[in-house]
Amino acid sequence: MYEEFQKNNFVIVCDLIPKALIKEMYDTYMTAYNAGEIIEGESPPMFGTAIELDMKKGNPTFKKVESLLSNWLQENMGMRTIPTYSMGRIYTKETTGMLKHRDRVPCEVSVTLPIAYDNYPWSIYVKDPTGYEHDVDLHVGDVLFYYGCRAEHHRRKNSLNTFHIQHYFH
């Protein structure tokens, strides 16, 4: 799997996050949303508006997931990583896509995982070193590990969902 990661700048791991932990993450989002502990507005590199969870306070649920991801990378890929930050967004029909971009330095190894969506996975497109764009569909519990600073990535217009929660770890 490490060789695939190096070759393509990304690797997909299905069903890595236990459903109980996904539910905890979802409940955290909904509690924050209902309590108004969110930031709504433009969310570059996204097109349109999105709702961000305020992660400044930290959260034990997200720390558990961060630890699970770091341990998985070390045990399965021989990669020792230092978590820098995580963030998440609730996308709505007002979120119309994501600009093609590379991440900034704290995102050398990035992880994206869907927590919930109302219809279908919202594809993320990741460019490999040959320039080919891979269309990646992640289901709840799946993760995409990618080299955020190397691999250009984006999302096309989301016409399939009116509600999508995505969390990112770096």
Can I get a quick summary?
The protein is α+β, with helices and mostly antiparallel strands and 170 residues long. The chain has 3 helices and 10 strands.
Radius of gyration: 15 Å
> How far is the first residue's CA from the last residue's CA?
19 Å
Overall outline? globular
Counting helices, strands and paired strands, the structural category is: alpha+beta
| Nearest-integer average pLDDT | 86
One letter per element, helices H and strands E, the order comes to HEHEEHEEEEEEE
The major beta sheet can be summarized as: 10 strands, antiparallel
- In percent, how much strand structure appears in the residues? 35-45%
Poorly predicted tracts of residues: none
DSSP strand count? 10
Number of helices in the DSSP assignment: 3
Helicity range of the residues?
A: 10-25%
Keywords:
3 helices, 37% strand
Account of the 3D structure:
The protein has 170 residues and is α+β, with helices and mostly antiparallel strands. The protein has three helices and ten strands. It has helices at residues 2-8, 19-34, 60-77; strands at residues 10-13, 38-42, 46-53, 86-101, 110-117, 124-127, 133-136, 143-146, 153-155, 163-169. Strands 1, 2, 3, 4, 5, 6, 7, 8, 9 and 10 form a ten-stranded antiparallel sheet that branches. The longest helix is centred in the middle third of the chain and has 18 residues, at 60-77. It starts with a helix and ends with a strand.
